[in-house]
Write a structure and sequence with these properties.
By secondary structure, the chain is an alpha+beta fold. 48% of the residues lie in helices and 17% in strands. It has a domain at 123-191. The protein has a five-stranded antiparallel sheet with strand order 6-5-4-3-7, with helices on one face. A two-stranded antiparallel ribbon has the order 1-2. It starts with a helix and ends in a 12-residue tail after the last helix.
């Protein structure tokens, strides 16, 4: 009985240690993978292994250079060239056959998350199937009359552990606004599969 008790204690300690280490290690692993992938885009320093293959080994310098370039482009576009070059490139990309659909969709997607025209700010509960099951989502279009539907809205329903999701067009009376938590907390709760805690944002 005593040995069984000790084994259970050891298993409990192991699971507790795993609970502490796993989120940290996974976070750093993903961060390392992202940094390494971006770092390899600029072969500043290279090494040759025993097989003769050339590998990039920048130790993060290439990553920092790319981040700096992106920041500089954002800085100059914000203060100096946003009204000319950015508009010109935007119009050019939207006129290229085949590419305009990919470009416009990608641009709208990023603007919805981080641009001046953020779309995922109206968090709601959506009764998609007209039953007692409610889904957490975001109203992305308040008026669907151009689709021939009066008093309907478009609701984006994100999936857990993914940036993917589905868009549903449902009547306005089957949508309830979420007022007690912010849209960012709503997105965090939804993407985590409902396991994260809901806390009030710092003022």
């Amino acid at each position: 009985m005593k040995n069984t008790f000790e084994y259970k204690k050891l298993l409990q300690y192991f699971l507790q240690g795993l609970l502490v280490l796993a989120p940290v290690l996974i976070t750093f692993y993903i961060l390392f993978s992202v940094v390494t992938s971006i770092d390899d885009l600029i072969p500043i320093f290279t090494v040759t292994d025993k097989t003769g293959a050339v590998k990039v080994q920048n130790y993060g310098l290439g990553f920092l250079i790319i981040i700096l370039i992106i920041i500089l482009i954002g800085y100059f576009s914000y203060f100096f060239i946003s009204n000319r070059i950015i508009v010109f490139l935007d119009r050019l990309m939207q006129r290229l056959p085949g590419l305009k659909h990919i470009y416009s969709t990608t641009r709208d997607f990023f603007e919805a998350f981080a641009g001046d025209k953020k779309k995922f700010t109206h968090n709601v509960l959506a009764n998609v199937d007209d039953n007692d099951v409610w889904r957490i989502g975001f109203v992305t279009k308040e008026d669907m009359e151009e689709f021939g539907l009066k008093d309907y809205v478009a609701v984006y329903i994100p999936m857990a552990y993914s940036v993917a999701g589905n868009v549903y067009v449902i009547p306005k009376n089957r949508v309830k606004e979420i007022t007690h938590i912010s849209s960012s907390q709503t997105m965090k709760f939804t993407v985590s599969g409902g396991v994260t805690s809901i806390e009030e944002d710092d003022k």
